[in-house]
Amino acid sequence: MHRLKVRHEAGPIRGVFRISRGARTQRDPVVAELVAGAPEPQPLDITYTISLGTPEEMAAQTSEHTDAPLLKLKLTGEGDLERVKAVRGASPQARIIADANEAWSPELYVELAPALAELGVELIEQPLPAGEDAGLADFDHPVPVCADESCHVAGDVQELAGRYDFVNVKLDKTGGLTEALSVVGAAQDAGLGIMIGCMIGTSLGVAPATLLGWAAQYTDLDAPILLAEDRPDGLRVEGSVMYPPEPELWG
User: Fold this and answer.
1) In sequence order, which residues have a C-beta less than 8 Å from that of residue 192 and are 6 or more positions away?
2) Which of 27, 59, 169, 212 lies at a 20 to 30 A Cα distance from 183?
3) What is the CATH number of the domain that holds 177?
4) Domain count, the chain
5) Residue 3 has pLDDT above 60, yes or no
């Protein structure tokens, strides 16, 4: 019989993690432990997050990851084009994802999407607020658009298929690996691409998501490296590659 243990495990983030809706200095998860087997995941390329800031601040962050093959830029609406231009100037060869975190209006999307295409941005994540994104079905997509806050469980996918090109699957939103697999299957059936993402959490919360890497065109699992302190025996990251967890991570 399986045994389930649940506990609260807070901890600081290294610096400040900013998005359009606010800033965080601490993660505040609930940890559940269940003894169970799992297939062996493979090493994954990861996406480095460039936190929201001025164009100059975001360019400085980019200069710390000049060898990173994929960058995700946190955006807020006002001044976003200048931010992307600054990051592109700091890393001409990097692949770039723009994550608006629901901060844009329809008018701003129509204005920015063609300009971001010219800058080589290859994915725009959740430009419009969840529940107010029906207009995406009528807009051109010069850059593919990915649902994040609009996609939680498999039942959401059918409605999103005409609006988005990708869905971001996060175990934090699905409630666990079982429903995440259902979201992946529903997205594939709908002809949508897959990003595997995460919220702010330790390696214990991110490691199960590595099992979904086989389905993903993008993997955004950098949460453990954003923390001031990860769990012991956490996921190993070398350069832009994240390696599968060791058995010791599970305790």
Assistant:
1) 157, 160, 161, 164, 165, 166, 167
2) 27
3) 3.20.20.120
4) 1
5) no
